[in-house]
């Protein structure tokens, strides 16, 4: 005989399965507290926490834009405004991060020309100086023996591209020419001040590449420490609400605005 119970049974199981799946992430895969307890490690970088995130650490465990990746399981990298940098060092105590442009690692003729630009929460350390590379330049008769320094590139198989680099402003009288203004493109890259003197002592593209690999220093916002310490001290893990960019303290008993005491914004799962 026809039984009306049978056709409804699959729906019952689907509903139960849906309820289980919807509730699974918090209980099976862990909540924000446990996911932000996982630290980022890659190559020479070990146990990196807030305000950084990446691989196992979700974005809600750090600042927007402070995502790290691990190329080939070996090379820690950070991409800021479309430019990828190797992360050479992260110092938790001084809030210092040392970066080197990945696209300038092998030579000073990258495929795409892009300036170094920063995002909110990052600032150059005082030991950093910009140098400027000019591309697609006319051949400038060398009037000065020191500056600017010529180099040649073949970008994307294009014809020989003439470039120049300078470690000072082109209005500096030492350059003695504003011909660089007729170059079709330019890129600013930061160097540490000590490397600038090394390059100036022996200006050539090989030495500049070496200096760029040495990297430059940035500091992240002091807000990170002032917000995070009370949270850590109360047994929580620091993070951020991705939508509002507001600080969050993830605790075993819920998510709090400052530390694990007081009224939770949302209770633990
Ligand atoms: C980074 O600093 C926090 C305190 O601000 C500390 O709890 C954490 O262990 C530090 N991580 C490392 C790798 O030093
Ligand atoms: C880099 O910045 C300089 C000065 O702000 C600008 O003139 C130049 O066009 C920029 N280069 C690129 C590749 O965007
Ligand atoms: C610079 O660009 C202009 C116009 O796009 C072009 O006519 C000129 O040949 C370019 N110069 C060089 C050195 O590539
Ligand atoms: C760049 O190429 C030109 C010829 O196209 C050559 O005269 C010049 O010496 C080269 N410069 C460097 C730095 O290699
Ligand atoms: C810079 O280049 C010169 C060759 O022009 C070389 O003798 C010197 O060792 C290089 N310096 C550094 C620091 O690489
Ligand atoms: C949450 O747990 C922490 C310890 O992990 C405790 O100190 C705190 O008082 C708790 N907060 C609330 C609101 O229960």
UniProtKB/TrEMBL annotation:
Domain of life: Eukaryota
Cysteine pairings via disulfide bonds: 228-238, 251-260
Any single GO CC term annotated in Swiss-Prot or TrEMBL for this entry: membrane
Membrane topology: Single-pass membrane protein
InterPro entries xref list: EGF, WAK_assoc_C, WAK_GUB
EGF-like domain residues: 224-261
GO MF annotation terms: polysaccharide binding; protein serine/threonine kinase activity
Signal peptide positions on this chain: 1-30
Enzyme class of the recorded protein, top EC level: transferase
Catalytic activity of the protein: L-seryl-[protein] + ATP = O-phospho-L-seryl-[protein] + ADP + H(+); L-threonyl-[protein] + ATP = O-phospho-L-threonyl-[protein] + ADP + H(+)
Keywords carried by this UniProt record: Disulfide bond, EGF-like domain, Glycoprotein, Kinase, Membrane, Signal, Transferase, Transmembrane, Transmembrane helix
EC number: 2.7.11.1
Short name of one Pfam family: WAK_assoc
Protein name: non-specific serine/threonine protein kinase
Organism of origin: Corchorus capsularis
């Amino acid at each position: 005989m026809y039984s009306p119970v049978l056709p409804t049974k699959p729906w019952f199981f689907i509903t139960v399965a849906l309820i289980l799946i919807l509730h699974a992430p918090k209980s099976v895969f862990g909540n924000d507290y446990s996911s932000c307890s996982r630290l980022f490690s890659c190559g020479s970088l070990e146990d990196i926490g807030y305000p950084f995130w990446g691989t196992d650490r979700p974005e809600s465990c750090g600042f927007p834009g402070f995502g790290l990746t691990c190329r080939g399981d070996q090379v820690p990298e950070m991409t800021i405004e479309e430019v990828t940098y190797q992360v050479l060092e992260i110092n938790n105590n001084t809030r210092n991060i040392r970066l080197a442009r990945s696209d300038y690692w092998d030579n000073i003729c990258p495929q795409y020309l892009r300036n170094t630009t920063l995002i909110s929460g990052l600032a150059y350390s005082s030991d950093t100086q910009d140098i400027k590379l000019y591309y697609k330049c006319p051949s400038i008769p060398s009037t000065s023996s020191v500056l600017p320094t010529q180099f040649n590139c073949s970008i994307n198989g294009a014809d020989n591209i003439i470039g120049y680099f300078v470690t000072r402003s082109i209005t500096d009288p030492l350059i003695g020419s504003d011909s660089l203004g007729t170059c079709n493109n330019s890129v600013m890259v930061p160097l540490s001040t000590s490397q600038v003197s090394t390059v100036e002592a022996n200006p050539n593209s090989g030495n500049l590449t070496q200096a760029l690999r040495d990297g430059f220093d940035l500091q992240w916002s002091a807000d990170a420490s002032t917000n995070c310490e009370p949270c850590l001290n109360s047994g929580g893990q620091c993070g951020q609400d991705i939508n509002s960019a507001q600080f969050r303290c993830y605790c075993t008993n819920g998510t709090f605005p400052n530390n694990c005491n007081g009224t939770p914004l949302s209770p633990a799962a």
